[in-house]
Specification:
The chain contains seven helices and four strands. By secondary structure, the chain is an alpha+beta fold. It has one domain. Helix 6 crosses helix 7. The relative contact order is 0.22.
């Protein structure tokens, strides 16, 4: 399972503040819904594009395991897209029609692929938005749809967080990690079991924690465990 949580900052802020050490466990397991069953399981690492230049940052993703159902849950900060290398803020800028800016120019090749994926899934996406959120009069053009739904949800970060958390989907695909085991996803004829993990690129990474219910205060000590490496990058 995967939970996307709000983080007030970019990947560099996340690493610099050691925010992965302050991520709180959900009160209930997202899979079996039982309370107080999640235990620390360590971390896995994945790359996220930086806000400038063709550079990536390696971030540690917090993991927990439910001692009731035995499934793990990863906690993904909202600056990262599930199974996508380019950061959410850069994706928002590009899909909104802006083709300028250092980050957009640096990742134009991948962003073009994201654009095609978004366009291909647009009829399905508008159907989900209509049935689940009552957005029934969306424009026809993809860029206008993107701008309107980002405006409705308060940005691409919140859009991704809400779609994944509420109905288990993203604008780019449907992933098994957003659905409890044994429960079929809604509004879909197919599920990607794992999706495509962000590639491990040979770019370096850089080392203000924002307000988030998923993050502990800096004064709170957090016990950490070594990652068992079971999860694919998400």
């Amino acid at each position: 399972m995967q939970v996307i949580f709000a983080f007030n900052g970019d990947p560099e802020d996340y690493v610099r503040s050691d925010a992965h050490l302050k991520v709180c466990r959900p009160k209930a397991c997202p899979n079996c819904r039982k309370s107080r069953t999640l235990r620390a399981l360590g971390y896995y690492s994945r790359w996220v594009s930086s806000s400038a230049r063709r550079k990536t940052t390696l971030v540690s993703i917090r993991r927990f395991r439910c001692h009731a159902c035995r499934l793990s849950t990863s906690m993904l900060p909202d600056f990262a897209q599930p199974y996508r290398l380019v950061a959410t803020d850069t994706v928002e800028q590009y899909l909104g029609g802006s083709k300028c800016g250092e980050a957009v120019a640096a990742w134009a090749d991948l962003l073009e692929v994201y654009q095609r994926r978004f366009d291909e899934r647009l009829p399905w996406t508008t159907s989900v938005l209509s049935s689940s959120y009552g957005l029934v009069e969306l424009p026809q053009a993809a860029v206008e749809v993107w701008c309107e739904i980002c405006g409705y949800f308060g940005g691409a970060r919140c859009l991704t967080l809400r779609l994944a958390g509420d109905v288990g989907v993203t604008v780019f695909g449907i992933y098994q990690c957003h659905h409890p085991a044994g429960r079929l996803p809604v509004h879909t004829t197919g599920v990607f079991p794992y999706g495509r993990a962000p590639p491990t690129l040979p770019h370096g990474h850089d080392n203000d924690l924002g307000t988030s219910p998923w993050l502990r205060s800096s004064a709170t000590s957090v016990a950490t465990t070594a990652s068992s490496g079971e999860d694919t990058q998400m």
